[in-house]
Each structure stands twice: as C-alpha cells, then as structure tokens.
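Field: sequence (string)
Field: structure_tokens (string)

Example rows 1 and 2, in order.
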Amino acid sequence: MGMSKFKGVVLAVLFTVTLGGAVATGTTAHAATYTTVSTTNVTKAAYHKKSTAGAIYNKAHNRRIATMKGYPNTTWYVTQHATLKHANSKGIYYYVQNKAGSVKGWIWHGYLTKGKAPFGLKYSKNAIAMDYTTGKAVWSKSANTARPIASVSKLMTLYLVLQKVDGSSSKWNEVVDTSSKGLISMSQSSSCGGFLFKTGHKYTVKDLYDAALLDSSNNAAIALGQWVAGSNAKFIQQMNAQAKTWNLDKASFVSASGLENSDLKVFGYAYGSANANMVSAKDVALIARHLIQDYPRILTDGSVGSKTVDGQLTYNYNNLLKGRKYYQAALNVDGLKTGYTPLAGYCFVGTGQKTGKHRVITVVLHDENEFTETRSLMNQAYSYSSMSD
C-alpha cells in the first residue's frame, strides 16, 4: 500500500461529537489495523495544518477524533513521535493536542507544518481590525466586499443626527414627530421595533438617539432621519452623500435603520431598488472612525449598559462591556454597535483602547460568534507593534 493510502484508512462513520466549539468526527474501523513500532518523546513544539486535508485519530487508528478542516486556525502542540505500521507500510505520526488540551490524538506528520497557526476568524465572513490613530487596517478578511450590515447602519444615522444637533441643548430637546402610522406599527413589532411609540407621548431627539444607539430601535432611527432631513427619502440620500464625501466606494444605503426593504415595505418605508444597505467591513470601520473623531461623546453614550427612556428600558446588547459575559478588562471596550437580520447575520462594530496602545476599531460581519471573535480580533490587533504609542 502506498503512503498516501496509508495516511488514513476509514471504514465506517458512526458518530460525531463537539469538542471545544468545533465539530470532531468519531469514526470507527472494523478492526484495529495499525500497530506501534516505536514511540519517542520530543520537546514540545508548535505546528499547524498544512492544508484542509488530514485528521487526528487514536493511536490504534480505529477512531477519528477531529479533522484539520474543522480546526482551521488551531495551533497543535506535538510532544511525541511514533512509527505506526499498517499492513506492509510504515509512517511517522505525531501526538498532538490543542492549547486547551480538549482535542488530542495522532496525525500523520505530513499533514502538519511547523510553527503557530496564523490568526484567523472561523465564523465571520468579512472582518477588519483598524488602527484608529492611523486609519490603517492591521488585519482583514474580505474587508472590501460590500454586504448587508443590519443595524450597524445606525452609525451613519447617528453621525448625521449628531451633526445636526451640533452640541445644541435646544436641539437635543426638540420633539420629534413620531405620529406616522407606519412607525407606530413598527414600534409594536417584536421583530422590527425596539422602542414603543406610545400615543400621546412626546419624544425628544435625545430620547430617540438613546433608543437607536442602545436599544437599536429601528423606528427611532427612521424618525430621527426624518427629523434631520425632512423625509425618509431625503435622509437616505444624505447618508449616501456623506459616504461619497468620505470616499466610501463600498457603501450604499437604502435604509436609515438597517432593516431590509423586504421588512420595511409593510410599514411604508421601503426605498430604492436594492433590498439592503450594502457596505464593506472597511467602510463600516471608517464610518465608525469618523463618528468617534468628530463626536467622541459616542463612546460615553455607547458604553452605557442600559437606560430608562420615557419609562422604557433601553438595553445595550454589547456583551464586551464591563459586567457582561465576554468582558476582558485589558481591552477597555467602550463601544460601539450591534446588528442582526437573518440576511446580514450577526454584525458587530467594537472599539476600545488598551493601555499604551492606539485605539482599535473592529468590524465583524455575518458572524455566528461575534463577541468571541471580536475579542480575539482585538487581542490580535494589539499584538502588532504598529498599534503601540
């Protein structure tokens, strides 16, 4: 039997188990056909996958533990070498385990290459880590591809609101027209609302700003846009004009809130021919950078965990803030915006500033684990010397 066939004889797939957040496949052969010729302890060394080929087995090679494809960015630590025999062929195998020690076993040495695995995000389809000080990307993944961005679109909406307010307390206290039947109906929708527009209540610009930023209220964002520009259509035109001013060539808006037209239509707020706001991760990061530069209060406002507005609790779903599940003290996360629709997936724009480092802005789009991956991305960004003061 040639070496390529010797690498992994699999006869029957019987079960799958989940190990460390990735799927590992248990595979059992009819009989243990691999025998150990010799085993040697070696100095612990880091390796990573050479390609998506290969799998980790138990030493007898009658149970598959994990595939390389299932662990694309894992560093494997080798502590033993062994010569295994199958029929008339022999091969060198390495005993490996991940950092946590939750996945371990034997793999043919040719599937590995020496050194730690390069950083990567498993779930996010488009992502970037940007140095706020320089505006340069320090790490990216398909960051120039425009895609639906859900409620992170509100960063542009909030920028234009802050631009009109221009620090004026009287403008913050202006009452916004929330009488539209479409907006009232939207506010009552469990899937499309976020902040209830109650009959007879008057809401100020500041009320709706908090509702849009913290609670990600779609109806609040649309009402604010109409306050800024006079109509929903004029405001969306203003969003696109602002993007053009900033030379964001991968940004196109049809919605003040981030909802798609397929959802907005029933409320009378569909606009344009496209279904969704289409923006690249890089351009989202640049919008966030302009927002922080021109209106730094967004960091103070965006770090509030929750706030009662007109008797309603507005809850900030940024789970990297202090006291939340994914909080990491050293990262000092103080913003910025979550987003989700079934089309866009989970989206998140994060920002923070580690002591002695530049502020970082991160964007993950169409993610499945947005806070864990953002935390990993921030830590990776800070590993680069360019992020230091």
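Row 2 begins here:
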Amino acid sequence: METRLDAAKAALADQGMEIAMAGMLDFCGDVLQISLASGRIDALLEVLDTYFSPADMLVSKGDIAIPRLFVSDMDSTMIGQECIDELADYAGIKPQIAEITERAMQGELDFESALRERVGLLEGLDESAIEQCLDERISPMSGARTLVRTLRSKGCRTVLVTGGFHHFADPVGEQLGFERVVGNRLAVADGKLTGGLVGAITDSSVKKRVLEEELVSLGDNALSLATGDGANDIPMIEAADYGIAYRAKAKARAAANGRIDRGDLTSILKLLNIPESDWVAG
C-alpha cells in the first residue's frame, strides 16, 4: 500500500527534485526527516505540506548533523506563554495587550512600535507583579529543558534571545540551561514600571545579529539551529542552517526549513538524529 511518504516522493520526482534521504523517525509516522540532493527547499516544503500537515519535519541540502550553536526565541517557544500578556493581566488589561501581541506575531504591526505601545500600558504596575507572574503563570514548554541540556551535552552553545524582557528571560534562561540571554529591559522607578524601556530594542535584526556574531566565534563551518514562532523570528530562522518553526504563525512557518507542528521540543532531538539514550532529562 502506498504511504504518504511514497506519494510525496513521487510528487517531488515529477517536479525534478532528487531526494538523498527520506524517512519517518517514529512509529506513529509524525516525524519526517528529509535530505535534498537537488531542488529548492521552499518548493520541497510546499509539496510536503500537501501530504504532511501538520507534521514534524526538517529539510536539509546535506547530511543533518548536531549544530554547534542553538539560538531560540522565548515566549511561546521555550515557555508556553507570552510574558507581557500574562503580566498585563495583573494590571487588568490583558485583552488589550494580547490583541496587539497577536498582530505583532503575525507580522501585521511594526515590532518596536507594538512593543513600546504595550509597555506603555503597563505604567504604574508594581515591579513585584513580575515575580508573582513568574511564579504563577510562566512555565517551560514541554521538552525545553531536555532539548537545551542535551544540546549542551553535545558541545552546542545555547543562547536565548527574546523580544521580551530580562526580568523574565534571565530566570527562564537559568532554569532551562541557556548560556547567554539577550532581551529588552523594562524601566523601573520607585518599585513601579515607568511604561518605558532601557537601552536598545531587541528586535528581529538583533536576533539575527546575535546568531551571526555567535557563529563567528565558533569558527568556519559551524552549523546553527534557531527556533521561534512569530514574525519577529523570521530573519533568525532564515539565517540558521536549521531554522525550525515551533507551532508557529503562518509567516514564520513559511520561512523555516523545519517545522514542529505536533510533538514537543524533544522532536528537534529526533530530527537531529540524537538517540533518546543520549538525552539529558530536564
């Protein structure tokens, strides 16, 4: 009986795309790994979406190997929440802020303007609400600790880069095992949020630049992995050798050569051919 994989390979052959390797990596048939010998990755992904959507997949033009660098977004990627939306709930304005967040993630709004608008709405909120929010609302995405710690055990440098805030990202990064954290800083005076930010904005261009700068320090031919879910992650995802969209918005998903639509973050370890016996539990 012809499988979905057989049908996809036939469709790709009809378009002149040569597959070096293709296979399902688990017994449920939900994790797909493909190496492309010839053809365009975007065209390949378009065909695969016809047969495997949703699915977990990674497409590469060469053999898939463990990266030397892992750079990840935080909100809705390494954690299951959008921090600014949850913090806004303590000010009683979550619906207003969440609507702006969603439009920014979809790529409908300028990121910096949307960020400053949302932060401005938090003016006067007690700084103590941040710690309360961390304790009560913020939790790691399933598989996050195992992903980060396993990659580190394989010699991969790990960096958390977020358009969110150091107040959240620093403890989250420490909890998950990231070696470096890059993010925005909320301005605080007399124990209350001022509605402003301190320093330069960490936006999509900064996320990409962090990845590129980290790669330089790792030397020639170092492979990179990036994960994210929103429009602000697209440049970073596109710049990485393995750009994986994690349960992502449409624009981010379309920009990636890897997708996690079904499984948790440990699906990335499967796609990198890291056996479960080597995983470092979180």
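free_text_note (row 2): The longest strand covers residues 180-189.
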